[in-house]
Amino acid sequence: LGYEYTLPAIPVTLTADGKSSLTLNTDTNDLTGKIFPPEKGSIFFDQSGIIQLRYDKRNVDTNAHTVTLTNIQALGTTTLPVTITSNPTIYMGKSLGFRSTASYGN
User: Fold this and answer.
1) What is the pTM of this model?
2) I need a labelling partner for 72 at 20 to 30 A (CA). Which of 11, 15, 27, 83 fits?
3) Higher pLDDT pick, 18 / 67
């Protein structure tokens, strides 16, 4: 699922210090902020190559009409710091893991 977001301030630099967050403007009903998984979500966007990131929590501010993704961290081959220089189309998802301890046939 992808959506073109407007950043309140450009450029935005995301660092590897564990304290980076990304704040995005939402629509007036805040629905474009609520489509992000509330926690442990992943996002990616194409800016001079694919940038893959994950975040811990999503915070929707209904007064300012923004969504903030906290504790941004790199995924895959992405290395931080990364600077976002335009209003990107951001794709989001939720990571799911499965584990089985059953024997074959159970």
Assistant:
1) 0.80
2) 27
3) 67
